[in-house]
TrEMBL record:
It comes from Chitinophaga qingshengii. This is Helix-turn-helix transcriptional regulator. PROSITE patterns: HTH_ARAC_FAMILY_2. Keywords: DNA-binding, Transcription, Transcription regulation. Residues 172-267 form the HTH araC/xylS-type domain. The keyword Transcription applies. The keyword Signal does not apply. The lineage of its organism: Bacteria, Pseudomonadati, Bacteroidota, Chitinophagia, Chitinophagales.
Length: 267
């Protein structure tokens, strides 16, 4: 059975699976708070690999790329519930509570932790919506988001510097970013946004830096990594083609032969 994602109300999402499930690339536009009810989530991102174990809370930063593999637990079931902390609600909360960001939140700060009694009870309070025994009005949905914010700040007051930083993404080092994220199969517009650029500026800066279009560079970079994995790691394309951003094996084999003049078995 494939993964089942359900939106319980505007910002609450419940994910369930009964076998190992590989998710697609996801662009995370808003912070979200999640709870691993059962099983494990293996998340791959620019900073590396994170394993979210059962009974763990995770606060996920906005404006990043993530790819996940979902593993059922001993019960044979994978369950993850998350609630988005949208910018509009956070902004209103900051105004009402006169919150000011006084220092940048550390970029390497781990954002997953054991739930305290309050956070555990909070996610249990969402069960009626997951089981569909209760429906949430728009007003109640906003209250549940604000409750999550209150509990996060109670857990770690420094989270205010993450949640209430409304500054726009600034121009970041394009070369470093692309080498860290080339394996994510997302539109050019998403790459542009994540580097703090408009699409036109992104393409212009990209051409100055790499001397080719983003599409051409991404294909070449992925194929170079594939060549390395085949030649030096003796890996088979079926083992890694999805990890490198290729949508199917036939496209990968065609592109590989076109670039290197040989098949993977001839390398």
């Amino acid at each position: 059975m494939a993964e089942r994602n359900e939106i319980m109300f505007g910002k609450l999402v419940y994910s369930c699976a009964f076998e190992k499930y590989r998710g697609n690339e996801e662009f995370i536009p808003e912070h979200f708070l999640g709870f691993q009810l059962s099983g494990e989530t293996h998340a791959f991102h620019a900073q590396g690999h994170t394993i979210i174990t059962e009974n763990t809370i995770v606060l996920v930063r906005k404006n990043q790329l993530v790819r996940t593999i979902k593993y059922p637990g001993k019960s044979g079931k994978y369950q993850f519930v998350s609630i988005s902390l949208d910018k509009e609600t956070l902004h209103q909360y900051a105004i009402e509570n006169k919150i000011v960001v006084d220092t940048p939140f550390p970029g390497n700060q781990k954002l997953f932790f054991e739930p305290d009694d309050f956070l555990r009870s909070y996610f249990l309070s969402l069960t009626p919506y997951i089981n569909k025994t209760k429906e949430a009005t728009p007003k109640l949905a906003i209250l549940k988001i604000r409750e999550a914010v209150e509990l996060l700040l109670q857990c770690n007051p420094a989270f205010k510097n993450l949640l209430f930083d409304f500054s726009e993404p600034y121009k970041i080092d394009l070369e470093e970013f692309m080498h860290q994220n080339y394996m994510f199969n997302i539109p050019v517009a998403s790459f542009a946004r994540l580097t703090g650029r408009s699409v036109s500026t992104f393409k212009r800066d990209f051409d100055k830096l790499f001397g080719m279009t983003p599409k051409r560079w991404l294909l070449d970079r992925r194929l170079e990594e594939a060549h390395y994995l085949v030649k030096h790691k003796q890996q088979k394309p079926a083992e890694f083609y999805l990890d490198l951003g290729f949508e199917n094996l036939s496209h990968f084999y065609f592109a590989f032969k076109q670039k290197f003049g040989v098949t993977t078995s001839e390398v």
